[in-house]
Write a structure and sequence with these properties.
The protein has 397 residues and is α/β, with parallel strands linked by helices. Helices cover 39% and strands 16% of the residues.
Length: 397
């Protein structure tokens, strides 16, 4: 007797058992078949179920041994295939190279945390394995402790948030003695973000940090106002940015990353200025200047009146500026702005960023950086790429 699928008659000569076997074959032939766990969960109750069938139907009792052997065979074959597929996938995943370079600095992967959104690192240790990160960029550090602005200083907005924290931090002394000592226990590079009111402030910070072990690079926040130039931000004037970078370059041999402000007419001009000044890389973008008003009180929702806008809302602007900058300078670019998924990170890499920083998304999902790392690796596997460097700047125009 031939069956609808063209197969041979069931050796057990039982329509009921043949139907069970037929359905199992269809599952096994389906894309991916049964996973190892599904096979396992499927096989465990088989003997019990068949026992109930056979005990209530004596006429098919004689087929019990045949069916049991059949299902054991199916399970063994499928389990073996699943294990081989898993081993093959693991082998391919291990071969994928996520390392990237920022000048002479080699990172284990391109995912960093953004300054001001990850504290001093230790605060997130309960939520993510800090050892898996490409690097931790700590909260901005100044020469002396800063209390920050009065509250309210954080406001949620559509697709983002406004903050006017005011660069609150513990100061360089406590950071080195307390915060950095804790971070040294992790196998992750540490980047120190610095800020100041004058060029001398920046120079002194770089001089201090240059002598400290455990610091891989220095990120320079040039969005701060220059108090000796009427409060104009260093990062909004190409000449001022060049001078600042040139002076601090003399003070340290560590990699220098200049963090650029988006609140300019042409960010590529500032990028070229700091490149000429000796920067090893640029990171962008910092927050966009914004404002929110409470219509009930008719007052600003931030005590500082204005604040920095971050989150998904700024991603298209950040992506455009990263692409512009990557095409304007020869030094590496680190992309920042609204990154909350692997897909977001991949867009920045395609646009020319050698690495990315995750910021506001950390407040929503403290483990998001780890998810992004895994997502990038899976994407490379799907695309048949062996290294993340193959992806950087590969945007098709």
């Amino acid at each position: 007797m031939e069956h609808a699928d063209g197969g041979a008659p069931s050796p057990c000569r039982s329509p009921a058992l043949w139907a069970i076997k037929h359905e199992t074959k269809l599952i096994a032939r389906s894309p991916g078949g049964l996973s190892f766990y599904h096979n396992f969960l499927f096989f465990i109750p088989v003997k019990r179920v068949l026992g109930q069938i056979f005990s209530s139907h004596p006429r098919v009792h004689e087929n019990a041994g045949c069916a049991s052997r059949y299902f054991r065979g199916i399970f063994t074959v499928k389990m073996t295939i699943s294990l081989l597929q898993r081993n093959s996938l693991d082998s391919k995943m291990k071969k994928i190279d996520l390392t990237t370079s920022i000048g002479k600095w080699d990172l284990k992967n391109p995912v960093l945390t953004a300054s001001g959104t990850f504290g001093y690192g230790q605060e997130f240790a309960d939520y993510i394995d800090l050892n898996t990160l490409g690097a931790i960029v700590v909260k901005g550090i100044s020469l002396l402790p800063r209390p920050g602005n009065p509250p309210p200083r954080v406001v949620e907005t559509s697709c983002g948030m406004l903050n006017a924290i005011g660069l609150e931090n513990v100061g360089i002394e406590e950071f080195i003695k307390e915060k950095l000592a804790v971070l040294s226990q992790y196998d992750t590079d540490v980047v120190v973000n610095i800020l100041g009111d004058t060029i001398n402030d920046y120079c002194e910070l770089c001089t201090r940090l240059d002598q400290v072990e455990g610091i891989k690079a220095i990120e320079v926040n040039i969005s701060c106002p220059n108090v000796k130039r009427g409060g104009v931000a260093f990062g909004t004037d190409a000449g001022m940015a060049h001078r600042l970078c040139s002076e601090i370059r003399k003070m340290t041999g560590k990699p220098l990353i200049l963090k650029l402000s988006p609140n300019v007419t042409d960010i590529s001009l500032i990028a070229r200025a700091v490149e000429d000044g000796g920067a090893d890389a640029v990171s962008l973008i910092n927050t966009l200047l914004g404002m929110a008003i409470d219509i009930k009180t008719k007052k600003p929702r931030l005590a500082n009146i204005v604040g920095g806008l971050s989150g998904p809302a700024i991603k298209p602007v950040a992506l455009r500026m990263v692409w512009q900058t990557a095409n304007a300078v020869k030094i590496p670019v680190i992309g920042i702005g609204g990154i909350s998924s692997a897909e977001d990170a991949l867009e920045f890499l395609l646009a020319g960023a050698s690495a990315i920083q995750v910021g506001t998304a950390n407040f929503i999902n403290p483990a998001v950086s780890g998810e992004i790392i895994r997502g990038i690796k899976n994407y490379l596997l799907e695309q048949g790429l062996e290294a993340v460097s193959d992806l950087v700047g590969s945007l098709q125009m």
